[in-house]
Every structure is written in structure tokens, then in C-alpha cells.
Design brief:
4-stranded antiparallel sheet; about 325 residues; RCK_N; ion channel; transmembrane helix; about 50% helix; Rossmann fold; Potassium channel family protein
Length: about 325
């Protein structure tokens, strides 16, 4: 039973470690053996070990050569057995390195660092966010969690973990307890309600493992904002609210530029103003007009022509009598 336990323990060791130990044992054994068989040719055990290493490596310097039949037989056995084990060792080592690299690309290797940012979900927003993070903090490590990618993006300082972000095992692989910030983007492959429910569920799992981590969450619908707040989100971005507001503000700017007479009816904080062209600037270049107003703490952003607004015209453009300046 004891020998069986030893054998099982031996089998549990990595293959390259077992082969390496066998190679070392062969070198020591044959180094001692050749010293005993040919003491005149090999004057010390170290010389025998040196000969065994060179023979196993199939280099064959020729500085030590067995002279007797028994020594030559020992050399043949060492070449056949040792060279085989050395070849197997390097093949196994290469395979282990390739397997480790492949597991890393596939998102199966756990992250061991600290103070990192965890980004959940891979989409265009995540891609742009990674670029921004690398611009302001190039040395900051980002752990990307996603279950739709087969292989992670090859981006510097990005560690990919493949799995469902709501699973504790996936979050532990990302070392959630040592994370500095978690950014949770909505799942683009689900409808809005399902994506928000999944975001809230993931947020609960994150806060359960690391209650103090700072969480930024994207919510698509207004009704799930309260649920995200209850789940512990530190910052909530309601995408529908933001996008609709931005689109409406752009529409108001378009109305303001297209219909100057309705300026008093619009409420875009009166940012864009319509200024008539002074007599001394009529016929001047746009460049000279811009400098003229800059000295008076006014920024010219374009010209309102009869046919419509012209933003950032060429600096050489000649201002007409019928033009109006668009100013901030």
C-alpha cells in the first residue's frame, strides 16, 4: 500500500518534472558507472558525469571516450536511453509552454494582480473605453470578462477571462477581491430588459464578493435604475436617457442655426448667438474677423448665409454683406 501511494504521488507530478528527474538520475548513474568501469580513462566521478552529460546531449566532444567493451556498451545504452528522455523532455516542455499560452488566449488563466480594472462585456463601447484607459493610464491592467469571445483581444495590459460575469468562479478568476474598479456594460446580444436584469444580477454577485469595489454600470431602461441603485452601483449610466438627450440637443442646435428668428423661443442656454457683420469687417477674410472677435472675448464658429449655416469656413473666405456670424 505504501509503494502504491508513492507511485500515485509520482504520477501527480508534472510530466516534464518526472522526465527531468529521470534524466538527472541517468546522468549520475552512468557517470558513476563509467568511473568504476574505466578508472584509468575517467580519473574522477565528475569526469564521468561530464561524459554522461555530453553523451546524453548527443554533442560528443571526444575528450573522454570509453576504451573497454563494457564502457562502450554503457555508452551505447546511455545514448539510446538518455537521448530519448532528453528529446521527450524538451518536447514536453514546449508542449506545456504552448498549452499555457493557448489557455491564456482562451481566457482560462486566472489573474493574480492587484489594483486592476475589471471590464465586463466586449462591444464597441468596451473597445473605445480600453483605448481611453490606455491613453490616460498606460500601465493600468484591465481584466476583460466576456463569455461570447472564443479568444481574447490581443491588447497590451489586457487580461482576458472567458466566462459568465455573474458566476463567482469567473469573478474569482478575475481576482475581484483585489480589483480597484468594475465597469459593467450592457449585453448587446439581449433585449433591453434582459440585458438590464443580467446587469443587476452581475452587480449583486460583484458586491457580494467585494462590497467596497467601485462599480460603474450601464443601464438601458429607466425602470431598472432603482434596482441598480439597490444592488450597490456607485455610478449608473442610463444609456437611453443620455442618447435621447444628446440627439434632442443636436436637433435644437440645427433649428437654431437654420432659423435664427426662433432663437428667443429655444432654450439651449443661449449658447449660440447670431451677430450682424460690422461695417468695418464687410469684405474682410474670415481669419481677420475671427481675430477681431477673439480680442473681444467672443468666439466665431461659423457664418449664417442666406442658404444656410456654414460652420468653420476657410480662413480665406470673404465675408459678404448678407452674412451673419455664429458666435459663442
Amino acid at each position: 500500500m505504501k509503494s502504491n501511494r508513492i507511485f500515485i504521488s509520482w504520477l501527480r507530478w508534472p510530466l516534464y518534472v518526472r522526465i527531468g528527474l529521470i534524466i538527472i538520475a541517468l546522468i549520475l548513474l552512468f557517470g558513476q558507472l563509467i568511473y568504476m568501469l574505466e578508472p584509468k580513462q575517467f580519473t574522477s566521478v565528475f569526469e564521468g558525469i561530464w561524459w554522461a552529460v555530453i553523451t546524453v546531449a548527443t554533442v560528443g566532444y571526444g575528450d573522454y571516450v570509453p576504451q573497454t567493451p563494457l564502457g562502450q556498451i554503457a555508452g551505447m545504452v546511455l545514448v539510446l536511453s538518455g537521448a530519448s528522455f532528453v528529446t521527450a523532455y524538451f518536447a514536453t516542455l514546449s508542449s506545456a509552454v504552448f498549452s499555457k499560452q493557448h489557455r491564456y488566449v482562451e481566457g482560462k488563466v486566472a489573474f493574480k494582480g492587484k489594483g486592476h480594472v475589471i471590464l465586463i462585456g466586449w462591444n464597441e463601447k468596451s473597445h473605445m473605453l480600453l483605448k481611453e484607459l490606455q491613453h490616460i493610464a498606460p500601465s493600468k491592467t484591465v481584466v476583460l470578462i466576456d463569455d461570447s469571445l472564443r479568444e481574447g483581444p490581443l491588447i497590451e495590459n489586457v487580461h482576458f477571462i472567458r466566462g459568465h460575469a455573474a458566476d463567482d468562479s469567473t469573478l474569482n478568476k478575475a481576482n475581484i477581491t483585489e480589483a480597484d474598479t468594475v465597469i459593467l456594460t450592457a449585453d448587446q446580444q439581449k433585449n433591453e430588459s434582459e440585458a438590464d436584469m443580467l446587469s443587476v444580477l452581475t452587480l449583486l454577485a460583484i458586491k457580494g464578493l467585494h462590497p467596497s469595489v467601485y462599480c460603474i454600470v450601464e443601464i438601458l431602461t429607466e425602470r431598472y435604475v432603482k434596482n441598480a441603485e439597490r444592488a450597490g452601483a456607485n455610478k449608473i449610466l442610463c444609456t437611453s436617457r443620455l442618447s435621447s438627450r444628446v440627439m434632442f440637443e443636436h436637433y435644437r442646435v440645427k433649428l437654431q442655426l437654420a432659423k435664427p428668428q426662433t432663437l428667443s423661443d429655444l432654450t439651449l442656454e443661449k449658447k449660440v448667438r447670431i451677430i450682424p457683420v460690422p461695417e468695418e469687417l464687410k469684405g474682410s477674410s474670415y481669419h481677420d474677423c475671427a481675430l477681431y472677435y477673439l480680442k473681444r472675448n467672443t468666439t466665431i464658429i461659423g457664418i449664417q448665409k442666406e442658404e444656410g449655416p456654414m460652420l468653420t469656413p476657410p480662413l480665406s473666405y470673404q465675408v459678404l454683406d448678407t452674412d451673419l456670424f455664429l458666435a459663442l
